Amino acid sequence: MLRTAFFSALLIFSHTVFAEPFAYVSNAKSGSVSIIDTQTDEVVGEIKAAKKPRGAAISRDGKTLYVSDQPNNSIANFDLIVVSSTKCNTV
User: Fold this and answer.
1) Which domains does the chain have, with CATH numbers?
2) How far apart are CA 3 and CA 64, in angstroms?
3) How high is the pLDDT of residue 42?
4) Amino acid 20: pLDDT
5) pLDDT tens digit string along 4-54?
6) How far apart are CA 45 and CA 35, in angstroms?
7) What pairing do the DSSP bridges indicate for beta strands 42-48 and 32-37?
């Protein structure tokens, strides 16, 4: 029940979430999340996220990115500390 409510909340809110200085935008067709530098408005990286990511949310502490995976009815999570220190697919 709680998982369904969380998943529903992800779909209701915008597909773009902010964890300054970056915005994370889910790309349903490519199965990825774009990382956008909010200072320059440029895509600085991409995370392979799920089969069809449809929404995203950031944890309160800003350390975790949650991405919905619609076809699998699941939520993937990414440690943003690791993502920021790991080389992402750059665009």
Assistant:
1) 2-85 (2.40.10.480)
2) 17
3) 93
4) 66
5) 555 555 444 445 555 568 888 999 899 999 999 998 999 998 888 878 888
6) 5
7) antiparallel
State the Cα–Cα distance between residues 1 and 48, nearest whole angstrom. 27
Q: Which of 51, 50, 55, 60 is nearest to 24 (CA)?
A: 55
| Contact of 16 with 23, CB cutoff 8 Å | yes
* Residue 91: predicted pLDDT: 37
Encode burial over 18-56: b for 16+ CB neighbours within 10 A, e otherwise: ebeebbbbbbbeebbbbbbeeeeeeeebbbebbebbbbb
pTM higher than 0.70: no
Q: What is the end-to-end Cα distance of the chain in Å, rounded?
A: 38
